[in-house]
Amino acid sequence: MAEHEHVKVAVVGSGFGGLGAAVRLRREGITDFVVLERAGSVGGTWRDNSYPGCACDVPSHLYSFSFAPHPDWPRTFSGQPHIRAYLERVTDTFGLRPHLRFDSEVKRMTWDAEEFRWEIETVRGTLTADVVVSATGPLSDPKIPDIPGLDTFPGKVFHSARWDHDYDLTGKRVAMIGTGASAIQIVPSIQPKVGRLTLFQRTPAWVMPRVDREISGVERALHRALPVTAKLRRGVLWGIRELQVQAFTKHPGELGFVEQLAKRNMARAIKDPALRAKLTPDYRIGCKRILLSNSYYPALARPNVDVVAAGLSEVRGSTLVAADGSEAEVDAIVFGTGFHVTDMPIAERVVGADGRTLAETWKGGMEALRGASAAGFPNWMTIIGPNTGLGNSSMILMIESQLNYMADYLRQLRVLGGKVALDARPAAVAAWNERVQRRMERTVWNTGGCTSWYLDPSGRNTTVWPGTTAEFRRATRQVDLAEYTVLRPSAERSATAAPAQVGA
């Protein structure tokens, strides 16, 4: 980085959110920006998660930017390599590489109230920016539980998002910790090669069939020749998911029929009544994310797989002890235990106008105006912020809505002119959050009887959006200046105030 480099906008992260922000900035005529990325390539979570079987649970044509359609998706549900390749293609198509700063992890971002800009300290140097767009994403920092004795384990230990491809699992005794979206893809992928697989299941998941197939050459040719057909396909996929939202947000009781389908899906593969009992959840379907797989249950029924219906509680050398007292000798431990979602580490590194970090501001729970702006952090926005997650559709739809909001935010700054900053009013943030939490009360995520990663330690859902993607699009179409305090440097405020005083 050049010494004393200054840019108009600094984007942090180069996953879908960061690359989308970069494309939108260029479309708005803003080229004075950088994208700070801690790794050596783009891709975000689709770069970091390269575990066996990694794939998306949202249909390919919906899990892509509307402004960058891809007619050649090979399958209806794409695997990690194809999604990562798509993001590389977006980077090249929109000329983003000159803006990228790889191996530039942000150590600290501090608002300079005198200079009206953000000072950003990275591992490769310091730069300043008028505006920061944080797109680090909630699924970026793996969470490994604090297990007594884990540090004494003599074998291999890694998280699903930091897969060790140099370690050969063939013939090994492997423990899989967790039963989330990553675990149900990893288990059937490694089961045929390992000697023994022990699944430590704290809470069983609801699993539905994955209606996946290869997209034919004829379909792809049609989408290339007539792009409107791909747009229509995307629209149908979107519409179906929009219609499902009410069952999740207003009428969870309607999900009972879906539970019966999930139980039939299990019964087809799991013939052992005792194993079926272990794998049957005791909470309403949808309370945790509904998982999709055709191979998870058949893998669990194989003779070299054991399901322990309790979480891992202790490690004694190479022996793993579950909460129910059962033990397993293993050579390797794979954690599929999720990420720091409601306590994002980036929040520790952002210092606002009053000298407090974002983590301190969010100590009682994350909240941001329209999922983007936190009070006390002028000219700082986040993509995929609090209560912008989804339980049944594509996050790319939410990201694009937030990009609309970001674009109008920057337009407002341009219209206001001079050194200026927008700071979300605490009352506006509180009012927005109150509306969101009030709507959340009826949702399956709050009433379904489960404990999920959607909830923070106090039990508040600070992760999911309790409505349709169309509603969120309308809510983020433009910035309402009444929800912000317009800030200017003290010297500039004095200069503009002087004539009024003389005139009086």
Automatic annotation (TrEMBL):
One of its GO terms (molecular function) is N,N-dimethylaniline monooxygenase activity. Its cofactor is FAD. The keyword NADP applies. Gene3D superfamilies: FAD/NAD(P)-binding domain. It holds the Pfam family FMO-like. Keywords: FAD, Flavoprotein, Monooxygenase, NADP, Oxidoreductase. The keyword Nucleotide-binding does not apply. Belongs to the FAD-binding monooxygenase family. PANTHER family: FAD_NAD(P)-BINDING DOMAIN-CONTAINING PROTEIN-RELATED, L-ORNITHINE N(5)-MONOOXYGENASE-RELATED. Catalyzes a Baeyer-Villiger oxidation reaction, i.e. the insertion of an oxygen atom into a carbon-carbon bond adjacent to a carbonyl, which converts ketones to esters or lactones using NADPH and/or NADH as an electron donor. Thus, can convert bicyclo[3.2.0]hept-2-en-6-one into the oxidative lactone products 2-oxabicyclo[3.3.0]oct-6-en-3-one and 3-oxabicyclo[3.3.0]oct-6-en-2-one. Is also able to catalyze the sulfoxidation of methyl phenyl sulfide (thioanisole). This is Baeyer-Villiger monooxygenase. It comes from Streptomyces fumanus.
